[in-house]
Amino acid sequence: MKVAVIGYAVSNLEWDAEKTREETVFEVAKSALENAGVSREDVGTVISASTDFLDGRTISNCMLIGGSGAYLKDESKAEEDGMYAALYAAQRLMAGVHDIALAVSHTHSWIFNPHQVSQYMLEPWFDRQNDLINGITLAALQARMYMEKHGVDELDLAEVCVKNLRNAAKVPYALRKLHDITVEEILESEMFSDPLTELMIAPPCDGAAAVVLASENVAEEICENPVWIKGIGNSCDNYLRDRDLAKLNSLEIAARKAYRMAGIEEPFREIDVAEITERFAHQELMAYEALSFCREGKGRVLIEEEMTEVYGDMPVNPSGGALAGDPICATGMIRLIEAAKQIRGEAENQVDGCRTALAHAQWGLCAQKNLVFILGDEP
Predict the structure, then answer these.
(1) Would you put residue 277 in left (φ > 0), alpha (ψ -120 to 50) or beta?
(2) In this structure, what is the dihedral angle of CA atoms 70, 71, 77, 82, given to the nearest 10 degrees?
(3) CB of 252 closer than 8 Å to CB of 290
(4) pLDDT band at 266 (very low <50, low <70, confident <90, very high)
(5) 296, exposed or middle or buried, with CB in 10 Å at 0-12, 13-18, 19+?
(6) pTM, to two decimals
(7) Cα–Cα distance, 160 to 317 (Å, whole number)
(8) Residues 204-218, mean pLDDT to the nearest whole number
(9) How confident is the model at residue 318 (pLDDT cuts 50, 70, 90)?
(10) Which fold has domain 114-203+228-379?
């Protein structure tokens, strides 16, 4: 059973939004259905993505049933990034249980400090007792290990930020829009944990996103330009002390699975654009390598030669990526939406002739878990 993306919506990304989580989810769910040209009555199943920790309430999806339109419908939840909700929804359609699915995701980051919450992902008896260990300090350790291994320096990380933040300046919903940002300003922003400065870290924010998926027959009947899911790959690595932090092994495995399913043999040549969840600048360079866009340790070369610019041979994050705004549970779903928009020719920073796109989501400390979608313009 083939599945397509037929509609989507993204809220404005902001800090301390003057609306409830339920209102934000209602707005994107309603907009996504309208974008797809379907009604709530047409939807067979609704999958939401949120976390009890960041929501500050248990069974957090229960409060979203009304806002997402899931009342009296088949409903479930992914306690992770929104792209995992899209995966869950796609699997339900592939099983032939439903014809149309709605996946929604949200986070209001101001409720709890996400980086403090990240401590609960740590091993409880030793690591969690150390107040200096959290998502940022561990990412800084990962960055330094990667940099020392491959001769990468802070300038390379800053170039990633400049590219993405300039791209974000054209995206209406983005939180961080810095068209004239320079490498010097990136390096001179506040140091959070060496070598990571403030502008090298994705800013947590409030936001939501939604996608509408449909089975092949329905998608071809009701949608003029469906975006087809060609391949999916998912993988989770070992705990951070039991793996090589200088490599994104689980992303490499997930990408191989997605490529195999989509029939892609030469990713650099066959993929027209990639939307990557880079919560820290160095992770984008690491992702280039894990996704087989270049050899190990050569991610900085793609940045130096401007190959990942919108006009380059392998455009990465024309939307600005997570560095432009990180509504945590919605961040990966936004990458999926931006990849779909590229294929439809609707993106703000449109890549010419885009027919195949990659979308990536991550979850966990130091990008422990990774999910890759390959999208195309044909089933």
Answers:
(1) beta
(2) 30
(3) yes
(4) very high
(5) middle
(6) 0.97
(7) 10
(8) 96
(9) very high
(10) Peroxisomal Thiolase; Chain A, domain 1 (3.40.47)
pLDDT in tens, 74-119: 999 998 899 999 999 999 999 999 999 999 999 998 877 888 888 8
Angstrom distance (rounded) from CA 358 to CA 267: 10
For 379, the token pair is 């089933």
Mean pLDDT of the chain: 95
d(CA 160, CA 168): 12
pLDDT single digits (tens) 124-142:
999 989 888 999 999 999 9
Number of H helices and E strands in the chain, helices first, is 14, 11
Distance between alpha carbon 209 and the CA centroid of its chain, in Å?
A: 11
Which among 93, 129, 75 has a CA at the least distance from the CA of 3?
93
Is 3-112+204-222's fold the same as 114-203+228-379's? yes
pLDDT at position 359: 98
CATH fold, domain 3-112+204-222, is Peroxisomal Thiolase; Chain A, domain 1 (3.40.47)
3-class SS at 239? coil
199: nearest Cα among 96, 317, 309, 281: 281
Q: Name the residue ranges covered by the structural domains of the chain.
A: 3-112+204-222, 114-203+228-379
Question: How far lies 88's CA from each of 49, 75, 199, 320, 340, in Å?
Answer: 10, 11, 33, 26, 18
